[in-house]
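Quick one: structure for this chain?
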Amino acid sequence: MLPNCIQESLKEHLEKVKRIHKQDLAEGFGSVYLPHALDRKYPQAHRQWIWQYVFPSVKRSIDPRTGVERRHHLSELVLQRAVKEATSKSKIAKKVSCHTLRHSFATHLLEAGYDIRTIQELLGHKDVQTTMIYTHVLNSGGHGVQSPADRL
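Got it. Here's what it folds into:
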């Protein structure tokens, strides 16, 4: 689920990534690791644009499984550091992590009235009980209830 407000930025980002991929191909690289079954079924897929990472690493490295030099996905540490830096620059005095953003997303969906099963699916939870954890923030007593007459 991508917000409409980032579609143009994402298109620009993907064009940049596509240019990097083309450059890698021109230099004799440009492949990604694919699980063995896919690699056997589609022997040229590892070099095709459609299989490339949306957020690739800045530099190529040696794949320890195969010894092949290729561009992997961006490390999750890069994102974690960016969130930490943004939190610091924003002078937020609370601990913030990538999981905080996930929690906030779920909470906003609940507050907007989306059903728990939809949220469960979006978050990828197998058990709805895991999703139910997010409902604790909605316990605002009678203060959170809006009279139907106010909607007239």
